[in-house]
Structures are given as C-alpha cells and as structure tokens.
Amino acid sequence: xxxxxxxxxxxxxxRGLMGKLISIYEEKGLTVEEMKLILPTRExxxxxxxxxxxxxxxxxxxxxxxxxKVCAMEIQGEGAIQIVRTLNGKTNPLEAxxxxxxxxxxxSKSVNAVHSSDCPESAERELNLWF
Length: 131
Ligand code: CMP
Description:
Order of helices and strands: EHHEHHEHHEH
Radius of gyration: 14 Å
Number of strands: 4
CATH superfamily: Nucleoside diphosphate kinase-like domain
Strand content: 15-25%
Bound molecules: adenosine-3',5'-cyclic-monophosphate
Number of helices: 7
Structural class: alpha+beta
Low-confidence stretches: none
Strand order of the largest sheet: 2-3-1-4
Shape: globular
C-alpha cells in the first residue's frame, strides 16, 4: 500500500468544494487515513516548497497558500501517488484534461486546487512535515 500527501488548497476550502474532491479520490478506491484543516505557517510552506525557493513564483505561492486554511490528507491505496496525480491533472489548468480535478476546479497555475506528492521520497518527506 502506498501513501501520498494531498493538500486541498485555500480556494477549495473557501468555495466549499472539499467534499466533492475527497469523493473523487474515494470513488477511485483510495482511502483517507489522516486529515486535518490547517492554516499553514510560512515556515511550513518554505520547507514544503523548498525546491521552488529560487523560482519567480515562490513568494506569491507561499502568500497564496497561507491565505486560508488548507485541508491536508494522507491518502492511501495501491499506486496512490500516480493515481492521485492522474486524477489531479496537469499543474496548469489550461493544459489539464477537462475531466481532471484541475481541469474542473483550478482557477490558474498557482490557484490550482490541489497539491500531491510526486514520488515515494517526496511523499515520505511531505507526510512527515504535515503530520
Ligand atoms: P503544486 O503541486 O502545489 O506544486 C508547486 C506549485 O507551484 C504548483 O502546484 C503551482 O501551484 C505552483 N506553480 C508551478 N508553476 C507555476 C508558475 N509558472 N506560476 C505560478 N505558480 C506556479
């Protein structure tokens, strides 16, 4: 069984779409093992997004992610990391499949509905950070 971190970003919590997104993962057979609503600190986000520190969008990303509560989840299932990434769709909603979570719900490249771990090493690191 594989585990991955999923973050439902602030606009999803504010728009009341948490349940809808959680259902999409559950309908696919994945299970929510841990879940919490958290207003992330700058320190947590800087650590979480450390690989993007030098990117031009880093500041606005941290600012946006700390603008409201985030729903953090540990999601489990066989092949959970890849399944969640496929369900999420591409980072840029303009390129994401229309039926994917980002295709359906993301507003822009940065206000893009969800985050999930991209490999087993990231999943372990990110789950330790958030839980
Ligand atoms: P996420 O999966 O949370 O991981 C890194 C985040 O950086 C990504 O989703 C986007 O929200 C954001 N991001 C990536 N590329 C860009 C970009 N070119 N402009 C703005 N935000 C970006």
